[in-house]
Amino acid sequence: MLKKFLKTLGVFLLIALIFIISLLAFLTIREYSPEPQEALEVTGTPSKTLTEGDSLTLLTYNIGYGGLDKNHDFFMDGGETVNVENKEIILNNMEGVKSLLLEENTDVIFIQEVDIDAKRSFGINQVQYINDLFTDDTESFATNFLCDYIPYPLPETIGKVHSGILTLSKFQSSNATRIALPTSFTWPTRVAQLKRCLLVERVPIEGSDKELVLVNLHLEAYDDGSGKAAQSKILMDLLLQEYNKGNYVIAGGDFNQSFPQVDLSAYPLINDEFFKAGILDTSLLNTSWTLAADNSLPTARLLNQIYDEASDDNQYYVIDGFILSPNLILEEIKTLDQGFEYSDHNPVRLKVTLGE
Questions:
Q1: pTM of the predicted protein model
Q2: pLDDT at 69
Q3: Per-residue model confidence (pLDDT) at position 22
Q4: Residues 31/268, Cβ–Cβ less than 8 Å
Q5: 152: helix, coil or strand?
Q6: For position 327, what pLDDT does the model report?
Q7: How far is CA 153 from CA 75, 76, 121, in A?
Q8: For the chain, how far is it from start to end, CA to CA, in angstroms?
Q9: N or C, which end of the chain has less CB nearby within 10 Å?
Q10: Other beta carbons within 10 Å of 134
Q11: How far apart are alpha carbons 90 and 119 in whole angstroms?
């Protein structure tokens, strides 16, 4: 009986090994490998234009694919949830996002973690959902997460993911580009990881040869810090390059790093076992650049537990905001307190004026 048992076990282990090797080979062959730069489709035909001296409003919001609301934690942050229980939760959160976007009605919207087709969001095309709200705006989308099947964690898995970042604008746009960012992850982990990028959209400034360069971003999160550093360096180089051309530059989104001017004593690190934001390295930029972040409220929370506003165990961060070139005048920066109702992030609103 022992010999039969060992033989059966051996066959089972061999089948499991073949399955694992086959899956890894399939995912490796199918790995999303974008070019360093790719032209993106820009849809919509808005009539609004920009001239020097004009003011505009922007909003950045990491919507957490509609699955990271206040009633959920997340396994990669020390919680337990992999995917939410049902489609209705995603739809309810997307309705909350919709109401916020329509109410704020900003000129430009940067959105991160928006799904096109993913198991975690029950196949809802959230990009189309949001685009349908702003039919007169330009829309450009850049994929940063594409995998046929993410086989962890077991026994439940993340499964299929197609997700990215979305920019909407009320201004006429000349073009949009996806700029690839480096990753610190190596094979085989890399095949099921995000392929981070910058979504760069250009708005002509009437009466001049200048452009407003809009940079939507979502930098690395769960790495050892080297990925965030390399990605931040490329971002800073791009900002300087565009400003040196005479352009106006606004970079915004989820930096996954705290801004240097933020008073971290207001958001102390409770447990260094979980996600640590680090500090955004802006040493390449001189003091004439503006780091626009609202220190009065957190822009994100750790998903190690379901959100309880009264709890002393909430880990908060200020990791969402904007970087403005010296020829832009900051009028207002404000974190909108949504109580993490629909996402683990709060949206951040910006108002700037184009200097002459």
A1: 0.95
A2: 98
A3: 87
A4: no
A5: coil
A6: 97
A7: 9, 10, 17
A8: 87
A9: N
A10: 18
A11: 11
